[in-house]
Amino acid sequence: MKIINRNEIEKKYDDNQYVWYACYGSNINSERFMYYIEGDKNEYYSSLDGCKDKSKPIEEKSYIFKCPIYFAGYSKRWDGGMAFLDYEHEGKSYGKIYKLKMNQFLDVLKQEQRCKLYDAIIYVDELDKLPIFTFTAAHKLDSIADPSYKYCEVIKKGLIDIFKDLNNDKIDEYIKQNM
């Protein structure tokens, strides 16, 4: 995994080229993620407009990151810490990948960057000859903070939907070990 510059991405990949967006926090929940694509009329979960291209991801799969997550910062929306990928250390975390267009990935990134902490685009790997990208903090944040119950429930629902071998107890243990 490595940090990649937005300008590099925009030069290398066409707006309509498919890429994988890898997520590890609340966007694991497909219903929650679609607010970033379609827009949120209440502007609670994302911007009013969402992505310019409102087409649904053409595929989604479970994904295992080779590094841990952690919770830090503070989100008014969630009333607690948010998930970040600790890509500088080895470990394991559960995620999901969505196959969508590069312009959608960049629009989702723009919406997520409203909190200013998701300041690094990470090239994770490649799957089916397509790049896998995610975003997180450039370096592990010092402001470690527990996530709210509501935030954990959104993550939990997404994990149960995509990882059929996980149950509530296993997910609670997974979240707790990353706090």
How is the topology of this model organized?
Blueprint: E1 2-4, H1 6-12, E2 18-23, H2 30-38, E3 59-65, E4 69-75, E5 80-85, E6 93-101, H3 102-112, E7 120-127, E8 130-136, H4 149-162, H5 168-177
Parallel strand pairs: 2-8
Antiparallel strand pairs: 1-7, 2-6, 3-6, 4-5, 7-8
Helix pairs in contact: 4-5
Roughly what fraction of the amino acids lie in strands? 25-35%
> How confident is the prediction overall: mean pLDDT?
94
Instruction: Provide the structure class.
Output: alpha+beta
- State the shape: globular
* Discrete helix count: 5
Q: What is the gyration radius calculated from CA atoms? A: 15 Å
Classify the oligomer. Answer: single chain
Low-confidence stretches: none
Helix content: 25-40%
Gap between N and C termini, in Å? 22 Å
User: Tally of extended strands?
Assistant: 8
Strand order of the largest sheet: 1-7-8-2-6-3
Main sheet properties: 6 strands, mixed
Question: How would you describe this protein?
Answer:
The protein is 28% helix and 30% strand. The chain contains 5 helices and 8 strands, in the order E-H-E-H-E-E-E-E-H-E-E-H-H. The strands form 2 sheets. Strands 1-7-8-2-6-3 form a 6-stranded mixed β-sheet. Strand 7 (120-127) and strand 8 form a beta hairpin. The longest helix is centred in the C-terminal third of the chain and has 14 residues, at 149-162.
